[in-house]
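Q: Here's a chain of 107 amino acids. Please give me its 3D structure as tokens.
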Amino acid sequence: MADEQKPKQFPAVRKDRVRLTLLVYRKQGMSLSEFQQYWREQHSEVFTSIAIVKKNLLLYEQAHVNEEASEQLKHVGFPVSDADGMAIFEAPSYAMIAAIFQDEEYK
């Protein structure tokens, strides 16, 4: 039948990697622009230079809050987090992500 709809095709669940997303908050007294500049430029450079990060992560990504977009979403009734960003980590396993935060060089 021409009117018959095909079932939706969803991407297969990846079994070769995992992702962990953490909400990130700036230090009290730091402006959003100061935080975004620090996190994007200094923190990311130091974090990605750590040996276990290079070894264990397939992807490290930052998502910075957009205040204008957040306000627009709030205005139409969406619940909006007060986080200043999200850090996204992708690795072959959660254990490999956890090992980063337990590593002496990270601490």
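Q: Can you summarize the key feature?
A: The beta strands are 18-24, 59-64, 85-91.
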